[in-house]
Amino acid sequence: MRRRPLLAVLVATLALATACSDDGSNSGADGSSSGATDPITGEPLGPSTTALANCAPMPAPEELAAIVGIPLDVGNLITLGTCEYRGLNDQSRVITLARLTDPGDQAAFNELVASTGTTTPLADATLAGAILGPDDTVFVVASDAIYTVRANVNDSPTAEQVPLSLAVLAMWLQP
Fold it and tell me: For residues 77 and 54, is the Cβ–Cβ distance under 8 A?
């Protein structure tokens, strides 16, 4: 039971730590580097990590609310690539979405998930390749990104809210 919040904290910490850089490089607004090198190793610095200026690329709160059954506030960017939507009437109700596009972030996420517990492939007809993480986060690899959703929007354990996470993920990824 203790691993569930740990995974969320570790993902947030990892995303924040990989995003922070004091390398003195002139990164562009698009997150790309300008050919800077690491002052210690001399190796070129790659593009910055998964970055969102706000939650606009994520589903709208109204779309999410229609699925999870409660009104939601606008999304708050809690770490790079991760937005949290809290209930309007009950701030303890939350749904967390992440889109990891940077290969380094994706590798770190995969390593973190592998180190914290067992994943379970989900047999869901609407979302091929969906995987359940050890903290009841549902994730899928699509369009060169890792998409994750974790619903905690009612009094049921998060394990019983996996169908809500799947429905949100399916809606998010539909063409």
Answer: yes
